[in-house]
Amino acid sequence: MISFSRVDTSVLGRWWWTIDRWLLSAILLIVAIGAILTLAASPPVAARIGLDTYHFAIRQFAYLPLALLTMIFVSLLEPVMVRRLAAVLFAVFLILTASTHFLGAEVKGAARWISFAGFTIQPSEFLKPTFAVVAAWMFSEWRKDTAFPGHFISIALFALVAGLLVTQPDFGMTAVISAVWGVQFFLAGLPVFFVVLVAVVFMTGSMAAYMMVDHVKSRVDRFLDPASGDNYQISRSLEAFQNGGLFGTGPGEGDIKHLLPDAHTDFIFAVAGEEFGLIACLFIIGLFATIVLRGFSKMFHETNLFVLLAVGGLVTQFGLQAVINMASTTHLMPTKGMTLPFISYGGSSLLSLALGMGMLLSLTRRRVGGEL
């Protein structure tokens, strides 16, 4: 068990006494639940496609130590170092995201991944947390000195990121980044003209995606009218929750995961519902809510505008991603390939979330006078 004296002035000692331990505990609990659910959900998927039974579990467990080390290391940084790290990583992954248009491996009709040395990475996953921090930096600098065009720089960067994601295409991630950026712009005090402009752009973009992109139109139509197309996965997902009841069928005893192609990724929450029941699902939702509400609580007591905007963006992104996954799984919104944070299988998702939560833990540490 970690134990440090209050007079310990070492890096780890200061970290332990300034970190938000409620946030840290909730994150670690979700990581542990994700490990259990990966073991429960992935073997049938691996067997179905001819891989070793624990192929996905082994790969996920290989990423876990690196993810935890990343989160702890980043949480040790001071806010000024967090924004510098975010700026460097944003530039790197922006270039890598652009390169997927030429070097990317196409999966399910989208070129979002780059493969090298036996590993596959989705660069756009890392744009979510890094762009949230960079946008917060630009907005805060604009507010410090209105002569500095921070809001215009942020708009230009957002347009570049959104353009790269739409052309992959990845409308789900575009929507999440757009929502996070919109929240930050609102918190930064954008003029009424921009409120109207952003709202019009978002609505126009959504309508254009529905009218011009076949799979987006198909998903929305099938959500509004289940009889209009194939709803196999969502039907099996709802069946899983029904089978699970209050307390579940027991670990490893679920049947629906043998029928769901994406049981270890997009529909892992359905596996939790069947094998561990409604009570466990509510506990998982409670953990996500704890992180989001704790983050917002910290944000509203923050005096430094950069920290306020960065925390607001990171918490909104984390919560929105969780809501989209769980709402899709329970048929409360059209299905979207969005991972459940720290629970769904995926190395890029796991590492990018660890980076984002490390930044959140760093920015919510107690600081003297709110200084950077």
Strand order in space, largest sheet: 1-2-3
The biggest beta sheet is recorded as: 3 strands, antiparallel
> End-to-end span in angstroms?
31 Å
Percentage of β-strand residues: under 5%
Tally of structural domains:
1
Number of strands: 3
Overall geometric form = globular
Radius of gyration, CA atoms, in whole angstroms? 21 Å
Helical content band: 55-70%
Q: List SSEs in N-to-C order.
A: HHHHEEEHHHHHHHHH
Please give the count of helices.
13
- The average pLDDT score comes to 86
Structural class by secondary-structure content: mainly alpha
Low-confidence stretches: none
List keywords for this structure.
single chain, 372 residues, mainly alpha, 3 strands, 69% helix, peptidoglycan glycosyltransferase activity, cell wall biogenesis/degradation
Account of the protein in words:
This protein is mainly alpha-helical and 372 residues long. The protein contains 13 helices and 3 strands; from the N terminus they run H-H-H-H-E-E-E-H-H-H-H-H-H-H-H-H. The chain has helices at residues 11-18, 21-48, 55-75, 79-103, 123-144, 150-166, 171-187, 192-212, 214-224, 232-244, 268-300, 305-329, 347-363; strands at residues 105-107, 110-116, 119-121. It starts with 10 loop residues before the first helix and ends in a 9-residue tail after the last helix. One of its GO terms (biological process) is cell division. It holds the Pfam family FTSW_RODA_SPOVE. It is found in: Cell membrane. GO terms for molecular function: lipid-linked peptidoglycan transporter activity; peptidoglycan glycosyltransferase activity.
